[in-house]
């Protein structure tokens, strides 16, 4: 592990900031915020909404922090820019910080619906299982497929909305979750393969991963459209159709970026565009249902 003789306050602050994986965690916080506001519309109880968001943020941060703690030895070999590998944060500090965030999550959940605690614990179990070794197996995609649907369900039950429509989120979010997992793994396919990690993305390869991501997005487009056209889920088409049009534009962007992913630096861009696609697709569909 890289060492810094005497760590400055700025070094430690930077280390903890990087340890929190701010960009990916921000996407999760944005998602749960949108779901919570949507679930509470049109009369949100702001204190409850704030607790739902804060508890989920604490959980996501704990998973992110403990991910770097679990990967600290591998990061020394292959990702020396990580905060623990650089010596900005000590392993025991990361472990204490991660556990402290879990405790904070439980404290924030106490005033909420007990179902919010149940779904949070299930999500936390998926996240910790991923950190503790499932990420290096084909089951990493399964973990994402199980975890991602829990976000909207958690947000809805957290604010006291148990609409039956919530359960249609599960297949939609599961498909999007697998796509997100594959796109997130895209930048590390060669490195993971070299380290004998058998992730789903490694098994599929770069081209297979790109094809799977697009297929899953198109699958969700078809599923939500069928649900709307058959009136199994009532939507406002003046909201749903513009969302579909915007998603179609994102799909074109993904097709263009897919031709550039041989350049490793472009793979992060692909991931962020795919995340935006998922947010617009899921958000537009939900807005068309509840607004």
List keywords for this structure.
291 residues, mainly alpha, Tetracycline Repressor, domain 2, Four Helix Bundle (Hemerythrin (Met), subunit A), 13 helices, 75% helix, 0% strand, globular
Concise overview:
The chain has 13 helices and no strands. The chain has 291 residues and is mainly α. It has 2 domains: 127 residues, Tetracycline Repressor, domain 2 (Orthogonal Bundle), CATH 1.10.357; 129 residues, Four Helix Bundle (Hemerythrin (Met), subunit A), CATH 1.20.120.
Tell me what the structure shows.
The model has no long low-confidence stretch (mean pLDDT 89). The protein has helices spanning 9-19, 22-40, 46-70, 72-78, 91-109, 114-131, 139-147, 150-158, 169-185, 189-194, 200-229, 237-258, 265-290. It folds into 2 domains: 1-127, Tetracycline Repressor, domain 2, CATH 1.10.357; 163-291, Up-down Bundle (Four Helix Bundle (Hemerythrin (Met), subunit A)). With 291 residues, the protein is mostly helical. The chain is built from 13 helices and no strands. Helix 6 (114-131) packs antiparallel against helix 7 (139-147), helix 7 crosses helix 9 (169-185) and helix 9 runs antiparallel to helix 13 (265-290). The chain is globular, with a radius of gyration of 19 Å. The longest helix is centred in the last third of the chain and has 30 residues, at 200-229.
